[in-house]
Amino acid sequence: MNKRVVIIGGGAGGMTAATQIKRQDPEIQVTVIDKGSYVSWAGCPTPYYIAGKIDEASVVHNDPAYFKKERDIDVLIDHAVERIDFDNKKLIVHGDTVDGDYSYDTLILSTGAKAVVPEIKGLRATDGSFHQGIFVLRHVEDAFTIKKYIDTCGCKNGVIIGAGFIGLEMAESLNHLGMKIDIVEMADSILPMLGTGEQRKRIIDTLKKHDVGLHLSTTITEIISTNGTVTEAVLSDGTLLHTDFLLISIGVRPDLSLLERSGYTPPDGMLIINERMETGIPDVYALGDMVWTKHLLTGKPFYAPFGDVADKQGLILGGIIAGDSLEFPGVIGSAATAVFDWQIAVTGLTLRQARDNGFDADETNIKSLHRIIGFEGTIPGLVNVVYERATYRVLGASIVAQSAAAQFIDQFAIAITYGLTIEQLFKVDYAYSPSTSVVWNPILAAYRKVFNR
Questions:
Q1: Distance between CA 2 and CA 27 in Å, rounded?
Q2: Is residue 14 a contact partner of residue 32, using CB atoms and an 8 Å limit?
Q3: Which of 207, 281, 333, 388 shows a CA-CA span of 20 to 30 A to 109?
Q4: Sheet containing 74-76: which strands, arranged edge to edge?
Q5: Is the pLDDT score of 232 beyond 70?
Q6: What integer pLDDT is reported at residue 140 of this predicted model?
Q7: Quick count: other Cβ atoms within 10 Å of Cβ 68?
Q8: If you average pLDDT over residues 285-291, what whole number do you get?
Q9: pTM to 2 decimal places
Q10: Is residue 405 predicted with pLDDT exceeding 80?
Q11: Do the beta carbons of residue 361 and residue 429 sit within 8 Å?
């Protein structure tokens, strides 16, 4: 009998692993089980779907019928895995097609993450559910629910708890729909992964420009609802915000509930995978937002709940299951977003992180352009580069710019991954075009600043 691979979770990483296994070895039996109604979905674009800027096909790519017809992958949606019997290599599943035991030879866990939800007075109804108008945005099903509500509620005011990437992207999306938005953030600033306060100020200023309220060093102490629908949020400084929509967006954590129900608790509560994405449980692998991987610079466990990381892990793990000697080495924390007028991209360590991890590090701050200044409306981007003093090895970078932020940060990410120095980067022959780049791009500008050339 051919080997049976079962994947629990049909998000980006799970479906990429499934398709790669079948691409490399069509004889392997692959089944994907998901408790939700959708697979092959993307979480990162959901704020733009809610805003009406992209359609449903951009967030749900294919349905179960497609994977059966085109890939010979069995996909069981609306099937809940109650627990895993690791000793006997079987799952206890509840659903219409399968209701009972389901065996596996190899198991891949891809159960994702769950939203962090604080305890706030008035957040929940007596049955434990959120009052109407209160949401989290973690799954594509959350996006569908939010969009349906926004399209029908006539909402005019919204409150977002948390000023991370999703919180800021949703602020822009809801602003695009004509809502007055307030962001409540318990920290004293935003985006700590940026290297400078000047970079953060640029984002804060653009929020003000677009009439988005930003309440720093503040929490919500009480949520008030009328007839079961959210109407007001009371802040710790006494401010009362009128709202008919509230989004909790303070972060995510790995969803380990299935493992816990199965009698397995990872050490320190972190499911840490090795380079072959093994969990330490025989014949059980894991990937995506539920796992911790290694940071390439520090060697420490690092949590990277990003779609591109899950996809890459899925591609590599699919090859491993099919017999390849591939490895997933780790990550360096590369990420990007855009908020109104500005693109944001980061990679590696900030100066403080570098020093906290034992590096003798320094930084340089430069202004750089994505095209020559003669084009109307062109504003220099703000670039921070962190490097090792003795060797000038690149350790981190962050950019806030009008355009090409991710493209420039990717070049720094390559340098960090392969241990390149600022001097080595200077030797690269870069492309130049007055309308899409400049003679002294951020990398070359950093070299001139560091070496006073």
A1: 7
A2: yes
A3: 333
A4: 74-76, 29-33, 4-8, 106-109, 284-286
A5: yes
A6: 96
A7: 12
A8: 98
A9: 0.95
A10: yes
A11: no
CB 199 within 8 A of CB 182: no
Handedness of CA 323, 294, 313, 267 (dihedral sign): positive
| pLDDT tens string 96-145 | 999 999 999 999 999 999 999 999 999 999 999 999 999 999 999 999 99
State the Cα–Cα distance between residues 293 and 270, nearest whole angstrom.
10
C-alpha distances in angstroms, 207 versus 171, 190, 249, 376, 382? 9, 12, 17, 23, 17
For the record, the structure tokens of 75 come out as: 């996909």
| Span 285-305, average pLDDT | 97
CB atoms within 10 A of CB 409: 26
Q: How many residues does the chain have?
A: 453
pLDDT of residue 1: 58
Three-class DSSP category at 386: strand
Q: Counting beta carbons within 10 angstroms of the beta carbon of residue 421, is it exposed (0 to 12), middle (13 to 18) or buried (19 or more)?
A: middle
Neighbouring-strand partners of residue 396: 348, 386
- 201-227 pLDDT, tens digit per residue, is 999 999 999 999 999 999 999 999 999
Beta-carbon neighbour count of residue 99 at 10 Å?
11
Among left, alpha and beta (phi > 0; psi -120 to 50; other), residue 374 is: alpha
Strand order in the sheet with 240-242: 220-226, 229-235, 240-242
CA atoms within 13 A on the CB side of 335: 16
Dist CA 393 CA 388 (whole Å): 5
* Strands 381-388 and 394-401, bridge-based pairing: antiparallel
Q: How far is Cα 399 from Cα 385, in angstroms, rounded to an integer?
A: 9
325 vs 275, 314, 316, 389, CA distance in Å?
11, 14, 9, 37
Residue type, 232: E
Residue 100, sorted as left (phi over 0), alpha (psi -120 to 50) or beta, turns out to be: left
- CA triple 48-76-321, angle to 5 deg: 90
8 A C-beta contact, residue 215 and residue 116: no
CA–chain centroid gap for 417, Å, is 20
pLDDT band at residue 370 under the 50/70/90 scheme: confident
For residue 416, give the amino acid letter. I
For range 369-376, the mean pLDDT: 87
- In this prediction, residue 437 carries a pLDDT of 87
**Cα–Cα distance for residue pair 227/266, rounded to 1 Å:** 43
Tokens of 82: 């109650």
Q: Of 120, 123, 350, give the one whose Cα is nearest residue 218.
A: 120
Q: What is the mean pLDDT of residues 169-186?
A: 98
DSSP 224: E
